[in-house]
């Protein structure tokens, strides 16, 4: 019996499966590195200088076409605006600015600290002054009789270069290539909402109200008819809407299937010749689905192509609609901040809290507020009415706050400050003023702060955390911690007439005073104590990751709440 049990035991033992191998312990995944950034948009590195090309510099008089348009009512060169007060001037004719004048001064723009040039539309415009509408007058709005297309926004052939701009051996491709050689990108102003003025003329004028294709074939004609009298059954009329738009401008019919194809083809042509980005004129006048189709088509062939729209509206919620990916998915010009800038640095002299209200650093309506184009004046509004100190203060803020700065030509010297359209806003700048710019304190201080931004990644793309924004004082961080870059910039602004003392606790490390070139060694629990001169700025930079717990908490909050659609 005992032997039988032993046999059974041995037999059972032979059937036992070997124990499975012990699985190796899974290594815990390494935590993802902490990232802090406002935007990953490459274009954010480049502050933008905006020129109304015809009014910048006449570098080549041979393309002025001074005999264009016969007779007092039609000639296109040098048409003073009637009604100018003594000592003032304005002009609604061509004044000769061209690609040569721009390229000849590329180093002037680059040396100021800019990485991109935005120029007004380059497409063909009519060859006579407009005879319809209300007579242009000093300070008048929507008065176009006697005006020309010197500004470029009255396109008639969007595939053809306007004859006033190129020179021998310098077309648009040559301009963009030349700007790139100076280290600058080209932003092209594009128009899809409208063509040229189209009706109310005593008799039809050549090109007005017409659009031609790349082969010069007429594809649209308003026929000098008011919008309501256009015939949708006529292909030449169907390119336009039958409702009114801006002044007497021909209003493009976004529902005509030919329209999208025409403009995609035209603007891809200019990308092919070197355009690096688009500024989209009057984006608010056409519906979101149309813009979504257009931007999608452009980016299918040119992934990541940067575009920003002009929706002239001070309602942040309204202009933010264009930034959402389901709509155009573009940046926009930051009109709400522009209004705050004028109130803060112009004659109202509001406190920095007004700026704070317009930044929308968290819980705002924009897809990403850090991608917005920030500015204080342009060609469609009165130039900022400020003292030299006001311009200096505005530039110190513009080039350190979130967003991508844009400066309108001449503002670097306070040119025509306070003037509106048809009252001097778009006057000719000229080589003489450029050559004398270094005598201007506004210019010198702009160059100082713009150059700093151009060499400081945190000021270009960093997340912003405000410490103080009230009255004449502002203090805030810009923090960029991404990839191999770890940089903290502490910005201190004083727009007051007396020195401002700051004493702020910061994380330990070696902070560099950006302008003084000196370093401040801060120990644990230490601070940066400094006095900022009247109408000045101080920037301290720490090239190290953030370790301060309080700051990290605010940065985490900013990262989670800054962007409405996290697409970066």
From TrEMBL:
Gene3D superfamilies in UniProt: Glycosidases
Any one of the GO BP annotations: carbohydrate metabolic process
Domain Glycosyl hydrolase family 13 catalytic: residue ranges: 50-453
One Gene Ontology MF term: transferase activity
Stretches the record annotates as Disordered: 61-90
Keywords, comma-separated and alphabetical: Metal-binding, Signal, Transferase
Names of the cofactor(s): Ca(2+)
Record carries keyword Signal: yes
SMART domains in the cross-refs: Aamy (SM00642)
Keyword Secreted (UniProt): no
Superkingdom field: Bacteria
Name under which the protein is recorded: Cyclomaltodextrin glucanotransferase
Source species of the chain: Noviluteimonas gilva
